[in-house]
Amino acid sequence: MSTAMNFSSKSFAPRPPDKGAFPLDHFGECSAFKERFMACLRRSGYESAACRQSAMAYLECRMDRQLMANEPLEKLGFKDLINEKSEEKPEKS
């Protein structure tokens, strides 16, 4: 009796991540934003919800410098922060 298992009947096809691959920030273009985010996380006891503004700024930096694909911030979970920003700006009359 053979104890070897035959896995050839199932094939594994790897697939890329949903958002795709993105380049690393080799030149440190967004390192100041990353450091602000990390400092916020340390201050808040690693409670990421308290640092969403910093996270949004970091992702905006990465998108502006083509270090990740441009995505609407609403799609990345920042819709409520965008609404707050637009409410803070007084309307021109």
UniProtKB/TrEMBL annotation:
<feature type="compositionally biased region" description="Polar residues">
    <location>
        <begin position="1"/>
        <end position="11"/>
    </location>
</feature>
<feature type="region of interest" description="Disordered">
    <location>
        <begin position="1"/>
        <end position="21"/>
    </location>
</feature>
<comment type="similarity">
    <text>Belongs to the COX19 family.</text>
</comment>
<dbReference type="InterPro" id="IPR051383">
    <property type="entry name" value="COX19"/>
</dbReference>
<dbReference type="InterPro" id="IPR009069">
    <property type="entry name" value="Cys_alpha_HP_mot_SF"/>
</dbReference>
<dbReference type="GO" id="GO:0033617">
    <property type="term" value="P:mitochondrial respiratory chain complex IV assembly"/>
</dbReference>
<protein>
    <recommendedName>
        <fullName>Cytochrome c oxidase assembly protein COX19</fullName>
    </recommendedName>
</protein>
<dbReference type="GO" id="GO:0005758">
    <property type="term" value="C:mitochondrial intermembrane space"/>
</dbReference>
<keyword id="KW-1015">Disulfide bond</keyword>
<keyword id="KW-0963">Cytoplasm</keyword>
